[in-house]
Amino acid sequence: MAWFFINFQNLPMEQKIALLLIEDDDDDIYLLRESLAKTTYAGSQLLVIGRLSDISLPHILSQPITLILLDLNLPDKRGIELFRAVKTAFPDTAIVIITGLDDKGIALQTLREGAQNYLVKSDFNFSELEQTIRFAIERNAILLKLKYSELRFRSLVEHIHDGITLSDAAGKFYKSPRPDKLLGWKPGAIRGSKPTIFSFVHPDDLPKVRALYDEALACPGKPVHGTARLQKSSGEYVWVEGTITNMLHVRFVNAIVSNMRDITERKKSEEHILKLNEDLEARVRERTMQLEATNADLESFSYSVSHDLRSPLHSMMSIMNLINDGDIEGLPEEAKQYVDMIGECANKMEVMIESLMTFFKSGKKEIVKSTVDTEAIVKDICRELDPVNTRGYDIEIGTLPPSYGDKALLNEVWMNLIHNAIKYSSKKDKPRIEIGSKTEGGKVCYYVRDNGIGFDIQFADRLFKAFQRLHSESQFKGTGIGLALVHRIITRHGGSIWAEAKANEGSTFWFTLPTDNRGIAKKVLDIE
User: Fold this and answer.
1) How would you classify residue 523: left for phi > 0, otherwise alpha for psi between -120 and 50, otherwise beta?
2) CA separation for the pair 284, 427 (Å, rounded)
């Protein structure tokens, strides 16, 4: 070994560390003390023990030891076993062996297991102590940094939620514990040749996975995405999704990097939703067929009403006209009354048939939506009211924003509601009708309010059913079709309609309509 002389006049700045000297030879202890005093570590703390058992002394364990100078020949332990015991007690501390034991086998083994240097006393120049200490401390710091960097990386890889594998071009891999947790396989549990990434793939998915792997091999650095089923140790398969990235060209990686995540629960949810959708589509098809059959029956009924019922009714009315045109005066008074009653019933039946046909046609008519000037419709209807029947009425028209729907059908809605309000408030001394709108929950609610006879709200469910009336024919004429027609038109537009009322205090009919993409029927002037 070459001699190294230190120029003590040009020593670097003094450095203080804690050194542990494990040595039982007093002469060597003295020599090391003297040599240390001539280095920049002269002010450092030097602890000396002569037996391995002294390591456990409190004043030793409590010190942050920077470097250990170790002799491998102590009274209670020697050789490689001594080194291992010291390394176990101080796993992150730099250890330099300075020993009289000249054994190349032990030297190599200790260096493999973490010693920074192995020096034989007979060959060691103690003047080189400073260089030896500095080299050992710096090298140990670098190794510790690498050690903990690798530990952090391994911890990340092995405890990440995803499974990560590194495999070669043939698929043979190093697997992190996470895939073992995903699949349940224990190391060495797979018989036969060394397993590959393809060993666990479901046979039906194997061609797809091989194609993905080949694509990754052909496109270095490009992540290739896919899903597949992998077999667990229990024999069942789990769904995983992930990426395969060819990093064989990247130095120190040199592998195909695959990461995967268990998506079995998500797949089950997707399959459940798919099954629900299929069931729903089947029910929709069945319901559609039922509706088509019902519509066909209604068509048949409509034809029957239009022709089969009207034909004898018209014949009866014609006979009544002949009787009235003839010598009706010759009939007894009671017979005349019967003739008049038959005529009234025939006319009423004609009106009911006409109303029923209008109701059926409203369900068949195609809805052609556009922006509708609601205020213009209402004003036109009020302008055309019979001045005789509406004399003395106070009709107030408030703010009516544009709506979006079929103009002709919405005209039918307003006409029915306004005429109803006039009819049911006709017995009031000062009948009053209010037509307007207000905004609730971001929607426009149109309304027609009257101060008429009203109704008992507990019977409100009968309002919108055909031929269901809350007042007798003797009180107010009508067929009971008007509100049913209004309800059908509003619901076909996707809107809603409801009523508020009190007996003898009037009623209010409300309805809403969906908006178009521009928000028509939603924008209202804030003037209320």
Assistant:
1) beta
2) 49
CA–CA distances in Å: residue 91 to residues 190, 199, 293, 313:
36, 40, 86, 111
Enumerate residues 6+ apart whose C-beta is below 8 A from 516.
369, 371, 404
Burial class for 198, CB neighbours closer than 10 Å (0-12, 13-18, 19+)? middle
Is pLDDT of 177 > 60?
A: no
CA-only gyration radius of the chain, Å: 50
- E-assigned strands of 57-184? 67-70, 94-99, 117-120, 163-167, 173-175
* Cβ atoms of residues 422 and 381 within 8 Å: no
Whole-angstrom Cα distance, residue 260 to residue 176?
11
DSSP secondary-structure letter at 73?
B
Q: What is the pLDDT of residue 469?
A: 61
Task: Round to the nearest angstrom and report the end-to-end CA distance of the chain.
Answer: 104
Lowest-confidence pick of 106-115, 146-155, 240-249, 350-359: 350-359
Q: How far is CA 255 from CA 167, 169, 170, 209, in A?
A: 5, 8, 10, 17
Q: Could you read off the pLDDT of 435-482 as tens digits, one per residue?
A: 999 988 888 999 999 998 888 777 777 777 765 665 555 555 656 677
What is the rounded CA–CA span in Å between residue 509 and residue 499?
Answer: 4
d(CA 448, CA 416): 10
Spatial distance between the Cα atoms of 373 and 397, rounded to a whole number of angstroms: 14
Cα–Cα distance for residue pair 236/200, rounded to 1 Å: 11
- Asked if residue 196 has pLDDT above 50, the reply is yes
Q: Residue 256: count other Cβ atoms within 10 Å of its Cβ.
A: 25
The answer, yes or no, to whether residue 409 has pLDDT greater than 60, is yes
The C-alpha atoms of residue 200 and residue 343 are separated, in whole angstroms, by 89
**Measured distance CA(385)–CA(387) in Å, rounded:** 6
Q: Element (H or E) spanning 297, and its range?
A: helix 264-303
For residue 414, give the H/E element and its range.
helix 407-424
- Nearest-angstrom CA–CA distance, 386 and 398: 21
The mean per-residue pLDDT over the stretch 173-181 comes to 59
Q: Dump pLDDT digits (tens) for 39-64.
A: 888 888 889 999 998 888 888 878 88
How are strands ordered across the β-sheet holding 94-99? 45-49, 18-22, 67-70, 94-99, 117-120
CB 505 within 8 A of CB 454: yes
Confidence of residue 37 (pLDDT cuts 50, 70, 90): confident
pLDDT in the model for residue 434: 93
Query: How many alpha carbons lie under 13 Å from residue 471 in its C-beta half-sphere?
Result: 16
Q: Are 191 and 143 in contact (CB under 8 A)?
A: no
| Best CA proximity match to 499, nearest among 488, 487, 491, 507 | 507
Closest CA to 499 of 511, 508, 486: 508
Tell me if 256 sits within 8 A of 247, measured CB to CB: yes
β-bridge pairing 173-175 and 163-167:
antiparallel
Residue 163, Cα to own-chain centre: how many angstroms? 23
Looking at residue 11, what is its pLDDT?
38
